[in-house]
Structure formats: structure tokens, C-alpha cells
Design brief:
Blueprint: E1 3-8, H1 15-23, E2 29-33, H2 35-41, E3 52-55, E4 58-61, H3 63-74, H4 81-108, H5 116-142, H6 154-169, H7 173-176, H8 178-188, H9 193-199
Parallel strand pairs: 1-2
Antiparallel strand pairs: 1-3, 3-4
Bound molecules: glutathione (GSH).
Length: about 200
């Protein structure tokens, strides 16, 4: 498979795909661009948003659709349809968390003006309190150390990546959510992922 990943030069929504590809040891070409170029570059994408991938000459957008496609090929989508549905459920719940933090993210990435500290109190922290306990419970109850009882799945790359951002956003995140830090370490310690995470450049978002 020939893969080119098109995304911004930050982690955000493209990083789960990179972590996944590093873990399965699939080579890929990176086409990264800055926020200033995003509007123009996104015109090339099927949904006019990034990330998108070119796989063997065909274009596919939507982070989760890309991860699902790759997971079916690499067995990171549970052992049957029920597992896959549960993994989808977990990932879609996490997408709700991401969506609820967008007003904060837009200030953090400079897309709009606003007071970051106020947005932390009014948007970010309430979102953490509403959604994160569910993910702590998924890990606690899975018996695998990952989100799902079948073991590592594509959803783990999504959640582990955002935890890095949450640590950057919230000085007290590690103290408030130690279970999530322990979980993230397990994902980041995976072969292929560990070396990549240690060497990648810092990205706030
Ligand atoms: N549903 C899409 C959302 C992608 C998305 O919003 N990407 C942002 C960059 S992180 C973007 O391209 N924004 C431009 C826009 O919304 O016009 C996904 O999950 O991949």
C-alpha cells in the first residue's frame, strides 16, 4: 500500500493516523502544511478538511474513516462485528469530547481571539469532567489496559494522542487524571510508537 498523509504541521487530528502507521510499520509519505495554507490545501480533500490520505492514488478523508479502513487491514478493530461496534462507540464518544472543546481549541490555535484562561474554566475543564470518567472506566473494565476488552484498537491512538494535548493545556491534568497518564504510557510504549513519540517535534496541539 502506498500512503500519503496530508495534514497540518501539528499533532491534532492527523497524529492518530501517524501513530497507527508507525505501530503497524507501514511506510508513508507526509505532506504537511501550515495553518496559513490550510484553506487552499483543503480544497484537494474529499471533505475539504484535513487530515486526508492518498492511498494507492485514491483520496480518503475523515480521521475515523481512515483509521477504520486501516484497522480492517491490520486487525486493530476487535475480533468480530460486536467488538468493532463497541470500539466505534468509544471513539464516537471521544469525538463528542473533542467537539465540545472546539471553542477552546480555536482560541488555543489562534483561529479566533479570546481569553484562554476563561475558556479553560468555561469550556475545557467542564468537558473533561463530563467525558473523561467514561474513558477511565473503559480502561479499568477492559481487562487489557487499553480501551477495549479485545486489546489495542485504533481508538487507542486517538485517545492517547489527545491526552498529550490535554497535558499541554492543563498543568494539573497529570494529577487530576493519573489513570489516563498510565493508560497513555501503555500506548506510547508500544514498539514503533515509542521511538516515534520520543523523536517527534513538540506540538502544543
Ligand atoms: N470530521 C473531520 C474534521 C476535520 C477537521 O475539522 N479538520 C480541520 C483541521 S484540524 C479543518 O480542516 N478545518 C478546516 C475547516 O473546517 O474548514 C475529521 O474528523 O477528520
Amino acid at each position: 500500500m502506498n500512503i500519503k498523509l496530508h495534514y497540518l504541521d501539528v499533532r491534532a487530528r492527523g497524529e492518530s493516523i501517524k501513530l497507527f502507521l508507525k505501530y503497524v510499520k507501514q511506510d508513508f509519505e507526509l505532506d504537511s502544511f501550515g495553518f496559513a495554507e490550510m484553506k487552499e490545501r483543503n480544497k484537494e480533500s474529499p471533505n475539504h478538511k484535513c487530515p486526508w490520505v492518498t492511498i494507492d492514488g485514491k483520496e480518503l478523508a475523515e480521521e475515523f474513516a481512515i483509521l477504520r479502513f486501516l484497522s480492517k487491514k491490520h486487525g486493530l478493530y476487535g475480533k468480530d462485528d460486536w467488538d468493532a461496534a463497541e470500539i466505534d462507540m468509544i471513539a464516537d464518544m471521544f469525538k463528542d469530547l473533542i467537539a465540545s472543546t472546539v471553542p477552546y481549541l480555536r482560541i488555543a490555535n489562534g483561529a479566533i481571539q479570546g481569553d484562554l484562561d476563561t475558556s479553560k474554566k468555561e469550556v475545557l475543564f467542564p468537558s473533561f469532567e463530563k467525558y473523561l470518567p467514561s474513558f477511565i472506566n473503559f480502561v479499568k473494565n477492559s481487562g487489557t489496559g487499553f480501551l477495549h476488552s479485545s486489546g489495542l484498537s485504533w481508538a487507542d491512538f486517538v485517545v492517547a494522542n489527545w491526552i498529550t494535548s490535554y497535558v499541554n493545556f492543563d498543568d494539573e491534568f497529570k494529577t487530576k487524571y493519573p489513570e489516563l497518564i498510565e493508560y497513555q504510557t501503555k500506548v506510547y510504549d508500544l514498539p514503533g510508537v515509542k521511538e516515534y513519540v520520543e523523536e517527534r517535534p513538540h506540538s502544543f496541539l
